[in-house]
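Supplementary Methods, section 5.1.

A reviewer requested that the exact input to the structure prediction be made available. We therefore reproduce it here, unchanged from the version used in the analyses.
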Amino acid sequence: MLGNRIRHWKKRLKRNKRLAWSLGIWAAAVLTAAAALAAVKPRIERAERSAGAMTDAEAVWLDKRSSLLSFEGPDSERGRAIAALAGLEGKVEVVLQRMYVCGEEFRRLGSFSSSEAMDLLKAHREWTATLQNADRLVMRESVDDLSASCKASARFGLDSFGNLSLFDGPVKKDKVIRTFFHMDVKALESGLSPEELRRLREGMPVGDGIDDYHQVVSRLGEYADKSGDSASAAE
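The structure derived from this sequence is encoded token-by-token as follows.
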């Protein structure tokens, strides 16, 4: 009986020793990993800071590259205006000319130093510019719309040569703004209603916006004269 108990205690002692040994190995592994992490953490942080600095440097490089790509050629209208402004002292009057599909508007922006005028021009890459008389800078903006005056007074009609044209005011005044194409009058008379023909001869309003304008040109374009002789006459 006593011998059995002794053998049982020995087995328990062996199991406890193995458990203690396993726990010791696990604890040592955890401590080793923690020490390794503590050792490499500063290196990781330095690497992250270096990566951030590299990103900033790349951003600066890209910004410089963008400036190079947007360089104004000396032979362009903008380039000549900027070059003239760079050598100008004193103030310059700046005027904005808005050029619409139909019509134009002028707006005085004010008096600027040459550097301020250059900054304004550079801020609007789509504008062109011309320096006039060394003290007046005209900036031009193209607008895909109709000017207010065009909406109010412009009319579609037929000129004396049978061309579809855009008139400033009544057709009978014959103040042509733009000529589109020569019309096939017979096809036009058979395709349009008497009321539409009357309106076209008297002058058809351009409408309230660029969409109306394009719709009229597109529809009447169906009756354009496709023959070579007529096209040459229209030109």
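Helices lie at 2-69, 77-86, 114-123, 148-153, 185-191, 194-202, 210-221, 228-234. These observations are discussed further in the main text.
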